[in-house]
Amino acid sequence: PHYDSRIVGKYCEKRDPHLACVAYERGSCDMELVNVSQ
Fold it and tell me: Could you please report the per-residue DSSP string of 1-38?
């Protein structure tokens, strides 16, 4: 991808948690995915 999934996920956490999960899944950001899903 042409973007950093961590940055996109962090931005999406407050606006749209589902999009944050998608971004973290694409970037294989396992710990971030666990944190946003709690």
Answer: --S-HHHHHHHHHHH-HHHHHHHHHHTT-HHHHHHHT-
Cα–Cα distance between 16 and 2 in angstroms, integer? 20
Question: What is the reported pTM?
Answer: 0.48
Domain ranges of the chain: 5-36
Residue type, 28: S
pLDDT in tens, 1-38: 567 767 777 777 778 777 777 876 777 766 676 666 55
